[in-house]
Amino acid sequence: MRWVVLVLLFFGMIINFADKSIIGLAAVPIMEDLNLSYAQWGIVGSSYYWLYPVTGIFGAALADRIGAKKMLGFLMLTWAVLQFGVLAIAALPFLVLYRVLLGAFEGPFSPVAYSHAHKWFPPKLRGFANSVVVSGATVGAMIVAPLLVALIEILGWKMAFAALGAASIVWAVAFQLLTKESPAEVYEQAKQKQTKKLEKLDIKAFLLLLASPAALFTTLAYFSTYCLVVWFSVWLPIYLVEVINMTAGQMGMAVAVIGIASTLIYIGVSSLSDYLFKRNQNWRLSRVFVVAASMIAGALCMTSILAFQHPVWVIAAMCLAKGLTYTILPIGPTIMINEMPERGGLMTSILTSSGNIAGIVAPALTGFIISLTPSNEVFGHNLSILFMAVLILVFSALFLYFVKPATNVEGEGQAEGEDLLQKSN
After folding, report:
1. Is the N end or the C end of the chain the one with fewer CB atoms within 10 Å?
2. DSSP string for residues in 211-273
3. Positive or negative, the Cα torsion across 297, 298, 303, 309?
4. Is 392 left (phi over 0), alpha (psi -120 to 50) or beta?
């Protein structure tokens, strides 16, 4: 059952990020149809994240109470309604409203998915499991880009959005029919224990925990990487077409290549982290050092694009930059959940929602940076890349220096016991 859950979470994340990224792939026809400027397009990209952090926290906290299965099914159905609603969009205000509402209902998905995978896998496999879930984001945002571009060109951008709505309905039905909330015997024990703890959450202690170095600098590192996540989603297609001079078809293939290569990279790094953790049980070495080193290397690859803008190197550097910096996405949730295991959904939502504040700032800021140099758009795009790289370098260094995760022996032992119980059953 754990592998069925993981596969469906993987496909759910594909839909989640396809919903996010299709707006960037359809940027040119949308801007032409609605007569939008770069500044207005930056607002469209930013609007998705206006409610995302808030609903992410409350949605994940609610999922801790009612169960991930019900919450994820409900979220998918709301996405379907909104994607079909795109057919009625005829002006900028409606496009912004659609993006705000889509972001609001997609906000809880990632933290709930990470927390749900956490329940089904023991510590020695959680890095891998989360990397599979995260890889669904890359598939949805990049690898399926040629398919989405083809849908946009054949059906028009509105019908392409509606097709994603249909995929959401299929997923919601499959998830309800094929999965369970958690391992049966363990769930009954955990449910009683969790219900008691949920009623006695110490708000002051919780806020102090969020301000601790482990939680604070993990969140900031996630934030810096998510600036790049948003850049890849909103601005990469435009960058490849207008700066690197690719056609729409070439752009779609390049985005897919970047997605495939980067997925293999961060799954490999996450598996390395799991391997080191299994051998030494050392959080600093296996989680923090591996992630920080990868992020720093990825940021340096990103800066190399400023000096070498040959299309082949741009794609190669993007593969490395995305794959290496994204390692915080699967490993970060394991660090946060480790700080308060009984509140896994809530802790992960704090991480993802706080990090996704980048989604509010980054698209609009990128549009503003590019608009500063209207006579030299190449320089503006390069300046935005430099900004992303420096941000990641700074916060990954802080993450490396300050984050010293707690050793949660009880939680680790319980998870291993759950794993043995599942095997015996």
Report:
1. C
2. TSHHHHHHHHHHHHHHHHHHHHHHTHHHHHHHTS---HHHHHHHHHHHHHHHHHHHHHHHHHH
3. positive
4. alpha
Q: Where are the domains of the chain?
A: 2-180+211-424
Q: How far is CA 166 from CA 19, 69, 150, 159, 187, in A?
A: 12, 19, 17, 11, 32
Enter the pTM of the model: 0.70
Tell me how many degrees the CA angle 154-248-162 measures, rounded to the nearest 5.
40
**Position 115: which residue type?**
S
User: What was the pLDDT predicted at 408?
Assistant: 53
Contacts of residue 331, defined as CB under 8 A and 6 or more positions apart, other chains included, come to 127, 130, 270, 273, 287, 290, 291
How far apart are the C-alpha atoms of 76 and 382, rounded to whole Å? 36
Instruction: Give the pair of three-digit tokens for residue 304.
Output: 């190399």
Find where tokens 């979470």 sit: 9
Cβ-proximal residues to 410 (8 Å cutoff; 6+ apart), any chain: none
Mapping DSSP to helix (H, G, I), strand (E, B) and coil, where does residue 36 land?
A: coil
Length of the chain: 425
- Residue 24: CB atoms within 10 A of its CB come to 27
pLDDT at res. 15: 93
The answer to whether the CB of 141 falls within 8 A of the CB of 19 is: no
Q: In the prediction, which pLDDT does 172 show?
A: 92
Collect all residues with Cβ–Cβ distance below 8 Å to 48 and sequence separation of at least 6.
Answer: 20, 23, 99, 100, 102, 103, 359
Q: For residue 12, give both structure tokens.
A: 């759910």
pLDDT digits (tens, 9 = 90+) for 327-364: 998 888 888 888 887 777 778 888 777 767 777 777 77
Locate tokens 């994240």: which residue?
49
Q: What does the pLDDT average to over 83-93?
A: 92
CATH class as words, domain 2-180+211-424: mainly alpha
- 68 touches 190 (CB < 8 A): no
For 51, half-sphere exposure in the C-beta direction (CA atoms, 13 angstrom radius) is 15
Contact 145, 25 (CB under 8 A): yes
Cα separation of the two ends of the chain: 12
* Chain segment 183-238, per-residue pLDDT in tens: 654 455 455 545 444 556 677 877 888 888 888 999 999 999 988 887 887 788 88
Contacts of 13 (CB under 8 A, 6+ apart): 109, 110, 113, 133, 134, 135, 136, 137, 139, 140
Cα distance between residue 314 and residue 121, in whole Å: 37
DSSP letter (8 states) at residue 340: S
